[in-house]
Each structure stands twice: as structure tokens, then as C-alpha cells.
């Protein structure tokens, strides 16, 4: 498979399997009532600065955090569910009326809840503001801490470190990776990063690097891509959009072809799995399963190009199943009329 010595270069995965699209009736979802609007009056997000992670849910406190055009609301999940049922009867209240607090801090791109649910972080441009959940429950809107990137870039992605209650990593739109702790300024740890995962996988060009807690490279893996059906041909190159480290032995990567004129085409999903150990084990034998045509119909009039990460993915540990969606995705049928609708794809434990 490849040497465990990092000086030998990235590991090349010897076995690639093409993922199959198989229909299933094993899962079903029951919608609770009707959709609950954010505000009583219609409003639109700015298409040039759409939030990438507009929702966070705290099971511990029974709260939902949701962005709006100038900040975010905090509401109780039960109140929102009850309102959804009322909307089905023709009444109901929007999130704005149900909210415990309305935090007005500007256009929020990312909402991220700490692993212990004690702190919610909200990114606005290059700033990250932190709020105590206990204080929000008491309707105190004052932030507990804030930090900023050290240049004119903005926060593209942010993840709390699962092994720590107060530590996190931040990715800027220009590819810089930062390490942070609540109450401490950000530390610049790496340049030219395309996407980042939980702890800590990063992508640079077509190489995935797995880093230790001290941000030292432990394993690097070279990705391979089959050419897509782009009309732009040789002018295209592959760009990693998102990394999701769903289990110790499995990482899911979303990427797309970037054309010479800046268009994003042919979204690709890849599941990299270790057959006999954890991903961080340099002696593990790796397999990649690629889904080349999993998302069709990507349109920039729904989500403009350059507003990633686009991948929406959740790992359901109890079912050992992944569900995923893509923000550009449209479903064309007689009911949807080219509107953006959710389409979920699933992987069972036997596939990842």
C-alpha cells in the first residue's frame, strides 16, 4: 500500500470502488406540522453572503439556534415544534416571536455549538463571537469572548475539537488554518488549506493530511479523481469542498471540478475507509469508495459559486448510517418546478 515513512510522500490508495446508487425503503421521515418562518414579514438572505452553517441544535438544553439576516435567534425546540403543528391548522408563530433572545451582531455565516453545549460561537466576516448558553437562557445577550483573524479574510469553516470543551479550529477563505481556545487569541498553524474536518484532517490540493493534537502530520493520503463530464476539459481542476471525519476509521470528502471561468461542476463524494484500524494508523490498509454522479443539477442561481462548503452530512451513530445532501441540489419534477429541495443519500455500516 505504501510506506509509513512520511518522507516517502503521501500514501496512494490502491483500491477504489465506485459507489452504487441503490433505492431503499428502509427509512422514512414524518414531517412535524408545516415549515415555521423565521420572521412574520418576508425577508431574503443576501445571495452574495449566504450562511454556510445557519442552524445549531442543543439536545442538552432543548434549544435551536438559527441565523437570520442580521444575527441569530435562540428558541426552545418544543416551542418551535408546537408552532409547526399550529401552522398546519392555519395559525402558529414565527421563530422571531418564539425566541428567547435575538442576537443582533450582523450577517452570521456560521453557528457552532461547543461539544459540551455550553458555548455557541457565531462568525461574522473575520470575527468569531462566543456566547454562554446559560446566559442566553437567562436572556443575557452580552458575548463572553471574541477573537478575529489577523488579516482581511473571513471565516470559511469552524469546528469545535471533540476531545476538548473549549478548543476549536478555524479555516479562513484564503486557506489559513487557526487553532483557538475560548479566552485566548487565535494561533495561525497552517497555510494553503482547502477544507478541514473534526480533529484534524486537512486538504491541500489533492492530498489529505491527518494531524496530531500538536498539528504535526501523522498520515498523508493522495486522492485520485476520475475526469468528469465538464465541457471545459483541461481547464478544470479538482477542489476539495468539505471533509467530514464521521468515525475513527472513515472520512468522507466532498469535492468538485473548478472550471477556468470559476464555475463549479460535477460534485464528487468519496468515502475513505481503513479496513483494519483507525485512519491515523499509518499501517492501515485504505479503501476509497467514490460516488461520481451522486448529485445532479447544480445551479448557481440557488447558491452562488464560491459560497461553500456545500456538503450537508450527518452520521447517525445509533443506526451506523450517514445521510447527506448538497446545497446546490435541485429536484426537477412536476411539483418542484426547479426549486431547491432536499435529497438525502445514505450509507450503511457495510458501505463505510
From TrEMBL:
Any single biological process term in GO: RNA export from nucleus
Molecular-function annotations in GO: structural constituent of nuclear pore
Alphabetized InterPro entries for the sequence: NUP214, WD40/YVTN_repeat-like_dom_sf
Organism encoding this protein: Senna tora
Name the UniProt record assigns to this protein: Nuclear pore complex protein NUP214
Top-level taxonomic group: Eukaryota
PANTHER family per record: NUCLEAR PORE COMPLEX PROTEIN NUP214 (PTHR34418:SF3), NUCLEAR PORE COMPLEX PROTEIN NUP214 ISOFORM X1 (PTHR34418)
